[in-house]
Specification:
about 70 residues, two-stranded antiparallel ribbon, 1 helix
């Protein structure tokens, strides 16, 4: 199961962990994924819910645009 936002397509980034002695070791910067049940829009001809994995940034955007109450 991929750690990817289904709305924005964001995925984890890869970078370096840098120690005090300036050694570089590879690490992952994971995104803040949330599992949510979102209501289907009436314009799209549906009632009920759909389960999605999305980032908190995408969730905030959906609230701000008015798609979610």
């Amino acid at each position: 199961m991929a750690r990817r936002c289904e709305v924005t397509g964001r995925k984890p980034q890869v970078g370096y962990k840098v120690s005090h002695s300036n050694r570089h070791t590879k690490r992952r910067f994971d995104i803040n994924l949330q599992h949510k049940r979102l209501p289907l829009l009436p314009e799209m001809g549906g009632e009920g819910f759909v389960r999605v994995k999305l980032t908190t940034r995408a969730l905030k955007t959906l609230y701000r645009k008015g798609y979610l109450a």
